[in-house]
Amino acid sequence: MTTPVEISWFSALCDDDYEFLGMPNPALASSWDHCRDIVTAADRNGFDNVLLPSGYTLGIDSTAFAAAIATHTENINLLLAVRMGEMWLPQLARQLASIDQFANGRLTVNIISSDIPGETLDSGPRYQRTREWMQTLRRLLDGESISIDGDFVHLELDPPRARTVDGRCPPFYFGGFSDAAKDVAAAEADVFLTWPDTVASVGATVTEMRDRAAGYNRDILCGLRAHVIVRDTETEARAAAERLVSQLDADTGDAIRNRSLDAASVGVARQAQLRDEASDDGYAEDHLWTGVGRARSGAGAAIVGDPDQVLAKLQAYREVGVDAFILSGYTHRAECDLFAKHVLHRIDHAPLKPRWQHSPATA
């Protein structure tokens, strides 16, 4: 029997929602009303999880939003993005435990290791900070007392009284493509997230990360963050993709990509390479369109096609080891309904949270 895959959606807290890429629309700007509507639609449609992204200069605060939306949802997990180093660590542990209580145990955590606002660190020390924060945060949320004198964490204290619903640290999702990032993920993360790429390349990444985790005597699950454009026919889907970038000019696209705190990362460079290697109409391989990356830092490609084609592409990624998908589409609210109508009900899916490997050692 095939293990169910986790299917997640995306709420555009970071001002990343457009009818036409590069053309801001006030009605689609990050706000409580707009992002709430996306998340509650994903909840009604039966998605397993929803990513709540974090951006200092962009949109609204993810932690505050997660606390609020927890009481407006019933079944969907909340994948809260948290930037390591940005908050006081003991307070962050207490906030996460509290949000998990508000959500009745539905919190998951997306670890972000980019620079924090107003500070730049070289890659090595930045990932060491992330490693120490992940280790400390896990122990505090597991209810352990800590005594740590690291390079970035200097703490001796008991855990907060506030605890998660099950008394354990929620699963950590983590993405990064440098050698340092992959090492931290292999040692500390529960789910490694990769960005859209060819099926063969994603499969190679999954194999690499499983091997790296095995070196730490651990298992790790792997997820794929990608966009999706699904329509009744392939012709309509490809037309929707072209329409999305029909008003985009190169300068605007460059400005959007460069405003992110991770704009110079190894992963972003790979997305640029994927665009450069694509066909004249932007396809890196069948049904993988790189046009989104012309105006977006981070995940820069979409799965494009009719319902059968999109389903087959997801299945191809599953066959190379993908355990979870974090999907999005423009506009996020409309594409959420389209994907649910055409594809979601045809996939055997369920949240990863009950299945993740909590212990650093393989069970």
CATH architecture: Alpha-Beta Barrel
- Fraction of residues in β-strands: 15-25%
What's the level 1 CATH class? Answer: Alpha Beta
How many structural domains can be distinguished in the coordinates?
1
Can you say what the CATH homologous superfamily is? Luciferase-like domain
Number of helices: 11
The biggest beta sheet, please? 8 strands, parallel, barrel
Radius of gyration: 19 Å
Order of helices and strands: EHEHEHEHEEEHEHEHHHEEEHEH
Q: Quote the CATH topology.
A: TIM Barrel
**How many strands in all?**
13
Average pLDDT over all residues: 90
Strand order of the largest sheet: 1-2-3-4-7-8-9-13
Look at the helices and sheets and give the structural class. alpha/beta
Detail the poorly predicted runs. 357-363
Query: Given the C-alpha coordinates, what overall shape results?
Result: globular
**CA distance, first residue to last residue:** 21 Å
Q: Could you estimate the helical fraction of the residues in percent?
A: 25-40%
Attribute tags:
363 residues, eight-stranded parallel barrel, two-stranded antiparallel ribbon, 11 helices, 13 strands
What features would you describe in this structure?
With 363 residues, the chain is α/β, with parallel strands linked by helices. The chain has a single domain, classed as TIM Barrel (Alpha-Beta Barrel). It has 11 helices and 13 strands. The chain has helices at 32-45, 62-69, 89-102, 123-141, 179-188, 199-215, 234-244, 250-258, 266-277, 307-319, 332-342, and strands at residues 6-10, 49-52, 77-83, 107-112, 146-149, 154-157, 172-175, 191-194, 221-230, 283-285, 288-289, 302-305, 324-328. It has an 8-stranded parallel beta barrel with strand order 1-2-3-4-7-8-9-13, surrounded by 8 helices. A two-stranded antiparallel ribbon has the order 5-6. Helix 5 links the parallel strand 7 (172-175) and strand 8 (191-194). Helix 1 (32-45) packs parallel to helix 11, helix 4 (123-141) packs parallel to helix 5 and helix 5 (179-188) packs across helix 6 (199-215). It is globular and about 60 Å long. The protein starts with 5 loop residues before the first strand and ends in a 21-residue tail after the last helix.
